[in-house]
What does this fold into?
Amino acid sequence: MRQTINTGQSSYHPNTTGNGCPFQAKAMAGGFVSYNEHIDAKKVRARSQSFFDHFSQATLFFSSQSEHEKNHIIEAFRFELGKVESAAIRERVVSMLKQVDETLASKVAEGLGILVPIARVKLLNQNIPADGNPEKYQPILVKQTLKSSKALSMASTVKDTIKTRLIAILAADGVDEASLNKMKISLETAGAQIKIIAPHLGNITSSAGKSVKVDQSFLIAASVLFDAVYVPDGTKSASSLKENPNAVTFINEAYLHCKAIAANGAGVEFLQITEAGFGITGKNKSFNRMGVLINCTPKEFVDAIAQHRFWDRENSRRSSHPKSQT
It folds into this structure.
């Protein structure tokens, strides 16, 4: 059986980007064929008892998460189940969550305005063969030998590199080319990938009159696809971004998703009208608060990106604070 996973832009067939490769080799070329072995036995369709351990892996996963990650999981269940119109289905899912973790179930139930069922649902698994005995197909409870694993939490990931991270640079006509290029080169040298986002595709013109290639327009770019955002200097560029609702939304979403955000020079003025602008005033020469940096060095921004997310922002949401004044 073939084990190789091809690298490249596409690892499947058919494809055009790889000139049709890889493709399946025929038997004459040494490709895989099944051996026609004669056997004399009874064929049955059955599952090992281990297949009925439906919850231990989920329990380990949830127990291994940081508090911020647990809250995200709880909110996700509240969101999805909140759209379910049948109260019976909502209660049934909460009953299933109780088998994973009682705290998870109780907090999800709280958001749904229901109580966690005390008794366990008798026939929790309804995926039963037509002639099967329902009792034999119910989940089994397995005692956990491992309480948690750091490898399962994003909070425990490596935080000393930005290799492969995708960084957005927001710019418009009048951008300061030196401010843009200095940060761009530093980030690329550290292993990150850079995309310049502007009001339109094609090229923008720097304050020095030079052409700067645009990778994406605000119309098609989505902040959720990027790991961090940088706004370079340039008075005209910053003014243009201020007037672009999509640019403001881009920063707002990145801030609410706890990503690193940096701005230098006139780019700081644009940052001030966004969610990320809390605490930034005209008196700030430099600023570094919960992953929001102004007038920072490339190294400072690289270090911030390497932290991946700044979860403390969720305890200090912009909506709970008055707008800062310049």
The chain has two domains: 49-145, 166-316. DSSP finds nine helices and nine strands in the chain. Confidence is low (pLDDT under 50) at residues 318-326.
